[in-house]
Amino acid sequence: MKDAFGSPQSLLVLGGTSEIALAAVRRFMARRARTVWLAGRPGPALDAAATGLREEAAAHGAEVAVRTVPFDALAPETHEEVLEKVFAEGDIDLVLLAFGVLGDQLRDEQDPMAAVRLTRTNYTGAVSSGLVCAKALRAQGHGSLVVLSSVAGERARRANFLYGSSKAGLDAFAQGLGDALHGTGAHVLVVRPGFVHTRMTAGRTPAPLATTPGAVAEAIEHGVRRRARTVWVPAALGPVMSVLRHLPRSVFRRLPG
Fold it and tell me: Which positions make up the signal peptide (predicted)?
């Protein structure tokens, strides 16, 4: 359960090596989170993420149990079994759905199976795991599901319409799931960051209003505390996208990638 200050004490991260997710976990650990599950593909990266959190907790004199669990977004047939075992260990106050791939637009346009893999990861895997977690949160009667969407899902651009379409689907799913959980005690927060400086975007030209994993993590923390339904990171993106959403297509398609 959340502590007296409303901060989650137990966390489950789907996409346990995500820089944004790990930044959020660190913020919650500093505010009394004591159990962390990192779900992801087994390997050195997942182990290193868990070790890093343990070392940071120890350096601050905190007792935090950090565990890893095998999870593959592309294997939805395993999601119920894997995630139900986590919830069987005890209530989860916050689930952070943070996995996803950016892909390579021009390459993937020429390789339909690569495009399918991207959409299966970003959308199908999220629908499967999101529904499993929502069912468990509903049964608990409390908890938040934080879904990392993207500004790219607001309106698909020529430069990344495969990624953008997958995030648009995810965003719509998360909004509907939030409505489905209304009144159950469980809550869905949709997070829409713009360009974030991470390993995934390394080497790409930053878009205007680019942000950092730390800034997204801060927005997540504040959004969970307020039980917000949607947050933009940075907040200025909300009004900007309201304008871009209504531009004529003939103008919108000429915007720089």
Answer: none
Give the neighbor-by-neighbor strand order of the sheet with 35-40. Answer: 65-70, 35-40, 10-14, 94-97, 143-148, 186-193, 230-233
Question: Where would I find the H helices in 79-212?
Answer: 79-88, 105-109, 112-119, 125-140, 161-181
What's the gap between Cα 222 and its chain centre? 15
Q: Could you give the CA distance from residue 143 to residue 131 in angstroms, rounded to a whole number?
A: 14
CB-based contact 40:46 (threshold 8 Å): yes
Q: What's the whole-model pTM score?
A: 0.93
- Cβ atoms of 46 and 38 within 8 Å: the answer is yes
Say how many residues make up the chain.
Answer: 257
Instruction: Give the chain's radius of gyration (CA, Å).
Output: 18
Q: Is residue 53 classed as helix, strand or coil in its secondary structure?
A: helix
Cβ neighbourhood burial of 60 (10 Å; 0-12, 13-18, 19+): exposed
**Phi-psi map region of 46: left, alpha, beta (phi>0 left; psi -120 to 50 alpha):** alpha
For 135-173, how does the pLDDT look when each residue is reduced to its tens digit (9 = 90+)? 999 999 999 999 999 999 988 888 899 999 999 999 999
Distance CA 73, CA 79 (A): 8
Residue numbers annotated as active site: 163
Amino acid at 40: G
Nearest-CA neighbor of 2 among 143, 120, 137, 131?
A: 143
Q: Are 210 and 197 in contact (CB under 8 A)?
A: yes
25 contacts: CB under 8 Å, gap ≥ 6: 11, 13, 33, 36, 53, 96
